[in-house]
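User: I'll paste a sequence; please echo it back and then give the predicted structure.

Assistant: Echoing your sequence first, then the prediction.
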Amino acid sequence: MNMKRVLFLLLVLGSMSLSAQNSQKRYRHHEFSSSFSVGSNPADKTVQDVTTQYIDAYQMEIANGCFNIFGASHLMLNFEYHYRLNQTSALGFIFGWGVSSNDYEGCLKSDNRDDLYLVSNGSESSRIFHIAPSYRYSWYRFSNNKCSLYSRLAVGAMRQHMQYKFGAKETEYADHSTPIDNMAVSYDQVKWKATYQITAVGFDAGLGSFHVYDELGYGCQGVWVVCGCRVVF
């Protein structure tokens, strides 16, 4: 009788151990993510510092602007890898590329002659790359276990290549078809600087290997991370 109880107890313990091992095997630790993002980020300040003085002095306006969603900003393409320690915490890194491009134009009456105009043109191009270690914390999981809310902090480095050209000359024509041959100002500089990304709230939805997500925050990825896709394995 005692032997039967011992055998039964061993069988139960063995079954529980096998079940725990299978559960551990089924848990997916690795994930790769990609997304687009828009909105202001720290790189915009460099663009503004260079262009604002000419825009204000010659009363220029944006003629052709790209990616000016939520203000003059960069359109970002982002990639991420995270290792999920458990259902709430994940460690990894983020990296991505961004671009911003704008053309400016202005026209003022000349101070020298009433029949002359001061026509000005400017063009700006900024390309950035960022990479940063990242920690993500999932602080709420919905009852269906398919959706969760999370926050994230990443701190790293950014490379920005900023180019700007500006020219102005007097002409009899108050339009911008008049070419400006001489560019009075030419700016071309590459800078490395510290950067970060703070995600105030992120929403993840998915089951198994494929997830989609959106994020709101501020930093090197901008304000709004959209069209995010994750593969978990």
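Confidence is low (pLDDT under 50) at residues 20-24. Helices lie at 2-26, 43-58.
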